Amino acid sequence: MKNPKSEIRNPKQIQNPKSQNSYEGLQENIRRLKTPKIETWENQYPDKDYDIHLEFPEFTCICPKTGLPDFATIIIDYTPDKDCIELKSLKEYFISYRNLGIFHEHAVNKILEDLVAACKPHSAKVIGVFNVRGGIKTTVSAEYPQ
């Protein structure tokens, strides 16, 4: 019986049929994703121009391609208007990502989108600093307004 490996002498001899992108369809509904509500409280100083800086060093989500966990620090800087983010609800919101398959880029943009919908700030920036995966450290940032 012939060894099948012996018949392939050159990697160029391997013919790969054209296949669809292996990421296709993995995130097509991400913008409609239902997440827990981020609660707010009334800002008693809306006439003041001040910034709020928040860091959540325990953010986790799942890689939709590999199913492996991704770990990150999520940093939020925002200038509130009439409402401020309630921190306990923000923590619960972040925890909802724990078993969610989502790309880093989508996670950061979804967090920004939900934050802006909740408190309608003057401005906001979300940064996701993701731990090294495959030798690559990823940092994603998104801002409002653009």
UniProtKB/TrEMBL annotation:
Skewed-composition ranges (Polar residues): 12-24
Top-level division of the source organism's lineage: Bacteria
Subcellular compartments: Cytoplasm
Residues at the active site: 63, 70
Coiled coil residues, start to end: none
Segments of skewed composition (Basic and acidic residues): 1-10
Catalytic activity, EC: 1.7.1.13
GO cellular component: cytoplasm
Sequence similarity: Belongs to the GTP cyclohydrolase I family. QueF type 1 subfamily.
PANTHER family: NADPH-DEPENDENT 7-CYANO-7-DEAZAGUANINE REDUCTASE
Protein name per UniProt: NADPH-dependent 7-cyano-7-deazaguanine reductase
Native organism taxonomy: Bacteria, Bacillati, Saganbacteria
Gene designation per UniProt: queF
